[in-house]
Amino acid sequence: RFSEVLADLDVADENQVDLFETLDFDGSGEIDLQELILGISKLRGDARRADIVGISLMMRSMQHALQDFEARVIASLQIQDKRLRAMTSGRSSSKMSTGEFEERLSGLSIVSE
Asked: What is the pLDDT along the chain (113 residues), one digit of tens a residue?
C-alpha cells in the first residue's frame, strides 16, 4: 500500500529501498511530518539542476577536506619517519659485535634447576 502511494508520488523504486534513512534527515531514528513531506517532495521525479549543483558542491567540499586530511597525514608520517631514523642511527654506534655479546653472555651465571 505504502509503495503504491510512493509510486503515485513519482518516487522511483530504487529510492524506496532506503527510504527511511533518506527521510530521516536529522538521524534521530524517527521521521516527523516535516521530514516526511520535505523528503518525499525531494524524491519526486527527476533530479533538478539545483539538486545536481548542490551535490556537486558538496562533493567538491569533501574532496578538499580529504586532500587536506591526506596532506596532514603525510606530513605526520614524514615527521615520524625522521624521528625513527634519528633513533635508529643513534643506536647503530651502540651495537655490539657477536663476540662482545658472547663474552657478556658467558659472564652471566645461569642457575639451572
From this structure: 667 777 777 777 777 767 777 777 788 888 888 887 887 777 766 777 777 788 888 899 999 999 999 999 999 999 999 988 888 876 655 566 777 767 766 666 555 44
Q: Which residue has the cell 516535516?
A: 34
**Between vectors from CA 44 to CA 34 and to CA 48, what angle results, nearest 5°?**
105
Are the C-beta atoms of residues 16 and 3 closer than 8 Å to each other?
yes
Q: State the pTM of this model.
A: 0.43
Of the candidates 16, 5, 19, 9, which has an alpha carbon nearest to the alpha carbon of residue 45?
Answer: 9
Sign of CA dihedral 61, 63, 66, 70: negative
Grid cell locating 110:
645461569
Longest CA pairwise span in the chain (Å)? 90
